[in-house]
Amino acid sequence: MRRRPTPRRKPTRRSKRAGQFRNTEGQGRHPALPFVVAWFGRNATPAPRFGLLQRSDTIRAVADNPLIWKPNVTVAAVVERAGRFLLVEEHTSRGRLFNQPAGHLDPGESLTEAVARETLEETAYAFKPTALLGVYQYHQSGDEVTYLRFAFTGEITGQEADRALDEGIIHAVWMAPDEIRRDASRHRSPLVMRCIDDYLAGRRYPLTVLYHHST
Question: How far apart are CA 193 and CA 92, in angstroms?
Answer without folding.
Answer: 18
